[in-house]
Amino acid sequence: MRYQWQVSSDDLTKNSPYFAALLDPNKFFEGRTFMERKAELSRQSELQARSGDGKPPRDVPRNDLPTVKLNVDRLPRKHRMDVIGLFLKILSLDFLDDSEKGRFEGELQRQSPSLIAGLIEIADLFNSPHIVRETLKRSGYALGKGKVPLSKFSSALLKLNEERIRQIIFIAMFLEEHTIFQILTHTLIVLGSKSWVNEVCAPDPGSPRWWYLPDGLEGNFGVDAQE
Q: Distance from the CA of 171 to the CA of which of 8, 56, 59, 187 falls in 20 to 30 A?
């Protein structure tokens, strides 16, 4: 199934180094074809304005807008489309007025860890972690905080499923929430992991990163002993 999102190319290139490079006509074929189509639409708009027929400019049909294809196979299928839409909204926040930004950030604050963990994945995939981190912090993202407090270890944390715990750890690392990171990593160690049954090893390459925590947090550590 094909999905389309309509966003400002100016916002994409300003807020994402990935899109700034991709849409550069001097670097990639995608950038050249994108700019050629954009220039053609601009010429059509100018010709319409010069016609002097007194009619307001017509909106460009969505199918006529320049497009860029995204490879998002690395993202988990669950929530994939929601994650992409959320990511593109963050890159296009400058297009919104203050009240719309406030509403969006209020909604962002309450999103589930599964959605936000996926958002962090796509931010890494498209080299745009800074604006995503800034937006999450500005919104006061609550890391899915609900009835179970995350800032103090308790037996209630042991009732969370492993994926939820890993997602919260992954998000806490990204947002530099040190206390929550320490509490949830302790929780995971107490519970143990189904991926540690034989040995700690990297999962299938298609697995999301929270199933094998990055930056050396999860892996095989051996000690060579010599007599």
A: 8
Backbone angles phi, psi at 208, to 5 degrees: -65, 155
| Contact between 81 and 75 (Cβ < 8 Å) | no
Looking at per-residue pLDDT, the higher value among 218 and 219 belongs to 218
The verdict on residue 27 lying in a domain is no
- Note the pLDDT tens digit of each residue in 62-75: 555 667 777 777 77
Locus of tokens 């103090």: 152
Q: Give the pLDDT confidence of 143-173 residue by residue, as tens digits.
A: 866 678 888 899 999 999 999 999 999 999 9
What secondary structure letter does DSSP report for 140? T
Residue with tokens 């860890």: 113
Is 44 a member of any domain? no
With H, G, I as helix, E, B as strand and everything else as coil, classify residue 103: helix
The rounded distance, in Å, linking the Cα atoms of 133 and 116 is 11
CB atoms within 10 A of CB 84: 19
127 within 8 A of 17, measured Cβ to Cβ: yes
Same domain, 130 and 171: no
Rounded CA gap, 35 and 15, in Å?
18
